[in-house]
Amino acid sequence: MHSTGNQSSTLVTSQMKSHIVFVFLLIVVFTTDTSLGSLDEEKLHNHLLSRYVKFVRPAQNFSQPIVVHVGMSVSQIIDVDERNQVMTTSLWVKQTWVDYRLTWKPEDYGNLTIIHVPVSDLWKPDLVLYNNANGPYDVIQLTKANVFYNGTVSWQPPAVFKSACDIEVTYFPFDEQTCKMKFGSWTHDYSLIDLEAMQKQIDQGQYWPNAEWDIVETPIQKHTIKYECCEEIYVDLTFVFVLHRKPLFYVVTMVVPCLLITTLTIFIFYVPPNSGEKVTLCTSILLAVIVFLLLIAELIPSTAQNVPLIVKYLLFTMAMVGFSTFITVIIINVFHRAGSTHTMPAWVRLLFLDFFPRILHMKRSHDDDQTDRKDDNVYSSTDCLINKPPLETRESTRSEQKYFFGILRSGYDALCCKTETQRGQYEMGDMEMTIRDEEVVTGRDGHGNNDRSKNTPSRNNYSKSTIDNIDFIVNHFKEEDDDTKVKSDWQFVSMVIDRILMLIYTLAVLIGSAAILLSSPLLWEGRNVHRYPNVESMKSIDLTHLYPLPPTAPPTTTSSSVENVTYV
Question: Residue 173, preceding bond cis, omega within 30 degrees?
């Protein structure tokens, strides 16, 4: 019994201690500053928004405009779609204005100087992107706004906009693009909402560099415009992005192959005309240029205002290849000409066989020189046989066999240039010597007068026929040699034309390529052309303290901070 009473008293004592500790903790919690601060924020929130109407413009006087300071911090240029002329950007749209209904005394609310309020519960300017290309026109991420004790509201929502951008393709791929983002109030005119720029340029402190584009300048322009639809004047802020393309990718994949193709066309004139591959090479290069032209057409916008630089170069290459194809056909035609079908004019012989070869240091081969000498010998031999005395006027006592053998021998010697003294002359003594040599071979003395008198008519007819046949053979060889020489002359003329056109074509390709590809002003642009922003100084700024606690009156931006453009 005694032990049971002691246990009960001990349990009661422990419970009392627990209650005392719990009460002490409650007292500590309710007496701390955190609980009071939380209550002050709740009290302040109820005080500001209990009778707040977010649909009414926060102006103490209706005729007084609300000055909204607008800035922009670009996070990333996601894409520049040249084909559809759309620029996609990720940015922060910074807005600051003064709402006189959101003021309080910090000492009445635990020294609170700033409060975070959902912007959906506050009045906010109806700023929209005028040149929106796709998606929402305004900010859809309604984040909280910072409300300061003097009524200044600062709202910096993130957004992704797709804005229309007029793509200039004249100097593609060495081009510069100017893309604009025009922000303004959709319903409030200049007398109700006035827009001012926070900074002179777009903030790039948190910019993630793009792989294709460089931002070289970001000016801000203020416009006051009177539209035809309305009597009021509206104001807007235009944020301009001046972009330079990084051309390395297009130089490697487009410009260099085009240069190689153009250079390859020079060797068309180096291919021999008799190979049969000149026209095939021209056609293959022309097809390659057309394929490149189709690939580029898929990248650039379909515009009728300007022709891109790379397209101009491809058209130039295509024109040169077409011209080379036309000239190649002419050269092949000249190469295959012959004396039986074409007669070489005197001016062609003078220019392409005498004048241009000396200038171009072109010499004909040693075989051609030998052919010339051989042709001269054939002419002399032929003249010898043609100008010989008639057979009937010669008196001879030789037999038919001896005379026939002598005629053949003399004709052979004439063809082999063994009996030639001067062109058009023939030595009859060589014929007599040949016949005497035959008498020795046959063992006859050549004094058979009776046989000669009996066989003279038949022998004369037979010998004349033999001479005519030999004359025909000689003339045939002469015609072949003449035709060969004429062919050789035409072939050499085609080689000279090839060489001349190769030099002209090489000069045209070099001048044309340099004039077209180096015509972009971006390649010769100096550093002082654009006002390059100091990105490093922007990155050193802490964005949480970028806009410190504003004064009672909102700061006014001087006229020099933005470029004012007024349209009537």
Answer: yes
